[in-house]
Amino acid sequence: MNTHTIDTSTPAIPADDYDTTAFFADPGAIATVTNTTDSQTVPLPTPDASTAELLAAVHEAGRRTVPAPFAETALVARPLLRRAGLSVPEGPLTYAIAPQLTVRHAHPAASAVGSAGSAGEDDTLLVAGTLRRVPWARTATAVVVLANAPFGPVLFTLTPDQAVLAPGANLAEEARDDLHLASVEIPAAQVRRIPRELLEEAELRAALARAALIAGAGQRCVELTVAHTTARTQFGRPLSRFQAVKQEEAKLIEEAALVRAAVQAAAAPLDAGTAAARFAIAGAKTQASASAAEIARIAHQLHGAIGITKLHPLHLATTRLWSWRDEDGDETTWAAGLARTLTADTLWAALTSTP
Amino acid sequence: MPTATISPLGFPEAVLPESARQLRLDVRDFLDEERARGTVLGRPDSWLAGWDPAFTRRLAERGWVGMALPTEYGGAGRGFLERYVVIEELLAAGAPVSAHWVSDRQAGPSILQHGTEEQRRFFLPRIAAGKCFFSIGMSEKSSGSDLASVRTCAERTADGWRLTGTKMWTGGAHANDYAIVLARTEEAEDKHAGLSQFIVDLRAPGVRIEPIHLMSGEHRFNAFHLEGVHVPEAMLLGQQGDGWKQVTGELAFERSGPERYLSTFPLLVSLLRELDQRAMTAEQLTQVGILTARLHSIRQLSLGVAAALDAGASLDTQAALVKDLGTRLEGALVDSVRSILPTPADPHATPGSHAELLAFALLHSPGYTLRGGTNEILRGIITRGLEQH
Ligand SMILES: Cc1cc2nc3c(=O)[nH]c(=O)nc-3n(C[C@H](O)[C@H](O)[C@H](O)COP(=O)(O)OP(=O)(O)OC[C@H]3O[C@@H](n4cnc5c(N)ncnc54)[C@H](O)[C@@H]3O)c2cc1C
Questions:
Q1: If DSSP codes are grouped into helix, strand and coil, which group holds residue B166?
Q2: What is the DSSP letter of B107?
Q3: B106: nearest Cα among B209, B283, B255
Q4: Is it true that domain B136-244 has CATH number 2.40.110.10?
Q5: SS3 for B168?
Q6: How far apart are CA B82 and CA B80, in angstroms?
Q7: What CA–CA distance (Å, rounded) separates A230 from B237?
């Protein structure tokens, strides 16, 4: 296996038996309900890959429903560590953006200026609080945490064994674990003071990673649906020959294409810097989250009853769409953020800022 | 895995040429001057309703009409992506571009591709100068979605053709100079065969234009009667019998442009102008953001098709997809604007006021998903495109 491949020994997705030949009498009608879970591993790009390459890989991970923190590692944790000047550990990484944590100096200076603990001899930190719903925390080598220290924003890493882990999951049974930290000491070597822009960049990267996953899962829905409507016969014709089916299927295809285009359009702005990226990424996550419902709705409708079973792989994509649209900011949150700066005079300029 | 089925969904990434940045600023300066003159009013659907030949000529003086036509025919020899930047600026501003719209988007490129050298030399410089305006004569009373069923017929005469029939919904025929008419030159088993295109002089004897008023009362399109109209041999466009191929070949240009999602954009600007006066509520922010994200996303798809056209590829499936998404947004935007800031639409309110623009956009809204091929037909094209791969 490629050394850059993320693999987990505990796949979160139960190994379903998709071979449902016995389920229906007519095997031709269920030609698509066979095992379509191609390998759930996707090679992880090297850390110096371009944003466009990272996005393409994350899209693929979303399409294949990779049961590991692939997007978290590639598009969020690694670039943030690099930007903060920390070394990048091997293996799967995850992140938590946690302004609510209590962060103090571990070694208060003898002559502290201001309130107790507001200055320290070094940046060793004492951290207390809970990191909620950290993606894949149980399988990650390290968690990249962004928090507010008394002296400003910091980025630090911790290992899951430094916390008490309460397992949780999203609708797709992807691990979303709470990490309870009771005055955990983080050595100065693992801490970096960061500019405020990096906090914002972390939020943008997380949102874009999630949007790219949604785009991938959307594509999977299109592929499964087209395969199904061309193979499944009713009233003596394939489903795809019916006008009403075509009408719905086209909307599904369009919605998926729309999300993909919006994600693709965010790569160059992200490379150009935070200010340029804000509009494109807010737009991409808003669109991705807003489209998830329509994509899942049509894919399920056109699959009929088989699509809502565990026998069929469609649920792997749709339960992720329903989860990912809410993670790292739902469409309501991002849309409001997008609109907050717009006026009659700036709207068109903002829209034409990309490409 | 049916991975291969995805190829018609591949959209090239659009990277605008460096020259586009300056061009955009130049167009914005020009629009500021025109606003000062009172010609650019920020109205919705200005590519259908904004009729102003004098504006067109000033635009042409800058080289922004027929700008993708080669310089040897009077064009500016600039690519489709540069043209894209110019037209999206004009539409977003609600500039009155309908006089030259069809000659710039369709007639020019079509004559360049299929026309004789004589036709190119005669028409293209006039189009680029903003002095020659075209209509499209495709639809008929019984030929809408099923365009290949057209019945207007062209019979051979000693020195050309004699056209008889009635075209419907012919936009601008009452004001334009020429129409490109799709007519049957041969009865054929296959209804897609035996069709040809003709350039018809709208002032020729035997042409009778009868107005058809929109529900808003506007006179934009017509019934266009051809009562034995003589069309000289030299005005056959392209090859006899190739009409269907020629018509469908133009569709990627016609369907994917910014006019397919920007028709009602000026209404969103008007809404923001209203909201700039007060603090937006959380709900208003969200709805404005959702619309903006969708506009942004559709624009990326539309630019992707323009990039492909610029590179010489034609993406019919993708163009149909952009048009379905875009025109549905145009209509949905009107409804959203209504719910974001409840305002009774009022056609008699002060021209340019929000209530008046809303009325205008609303009265035009059913047309967005009809013109240029209905969305239901486009969706058939999209699914077929995907299944063939
Ligand atoms: C504002 C405007 C400007 C126009 N300008 C011009 C112009 O300049 N020149 C010109 O030639 N034409 C013009 N048209 C005409 C336009 O191209 C036609 O209206 C269009 O092709 C639809 O044809 P129809 O109106 O006859 O509808 P019909 O074809 O009768 O369709 C009626 C409804 O049935 C649906 N339908 C029909 N067949 C199918 C099918 N097989 N499957 C699913 N649904 C189906 C259609 O989608 C539509 O919803 C214009 C139209 C508008 C609205």
A1: strand
A2: I
A3: B255
A4: yes
A5: strand
A6: 5
A7: 40
Q: Give CA separation, A270 vs A71, A264, B20, B329, in Å.
A: 16, 11, 21, 27
**A286 CA to centre of own chain:** 14
Characterize A210-246 residue by residue with b for buried, 16 or more Cβ atoms within 10 angstroms of its Cβ, and e for exposed. Answer: bbbbbbbbbbbbbbbbbbbbbbbeeeeebbbbeeebb
Q: Which of B254, B259, B330, B356 is catalytic?
A: B254
* Catalytic residue status for B254: yes
CA–CA separation, B179 vs B312, rounded Å? 26
Query: Does the C-beta of B331 come closer than 6 Å to ligand 1?
Result: no
Assess whether pLDDT exceeds 50 at residue A34: no
CB contact under 8 A, B301 and A343: no
Enumerate the domain spans of chain B. Answer: 3-132, 136-244, 246-388
Ligand 1 centroid to residue B139 C-alpha, Å:
8
Take residue B355 and report the two structure tokens written for it. 């209530």
Note the residue count of chain A. Answer: 355
Q: How far is the CA of B254 from the centre of ligand 1 (A)?
A: 15
Per residue in A60-104, pLDDT tens?
Answer: 999 988 888 999 999 999 999 999 999 999 889 999 999 999 999
d(CA B159, CA B231): 9
Residue A10: exposure state from Cβ atoms within 10 A (0-12, 13-18, ≥19): exposed
Contact between B244 and B186 (Cβ < 8 Å): no
Structure confidence by residue, pLDDT tens digits, B213-240: 999 999 999 999 999 999 999 999 999 9
Tokens 């953020």 identify what position?
A: A337
Q: Could you tell me the fold of the domain covering B3-132?
A: Butyryl-Coa Dehydrogenase, subunit A; domain 1 (1.10.540)
| CB-neighbour burial class of residue B189 (10 A; exposed 0-12, middle 13-18, buried 19+) | exposed
Task: From the options 3.20.20.70, 1.20.140.10, 1.10.150.170, 3.40.50.10610, give the CATH code of B246-388.
Answer: 1.20.140.10
pTM: 0.90
ipTM of the predicted structure? 0.90
A56 three-class SS: helix
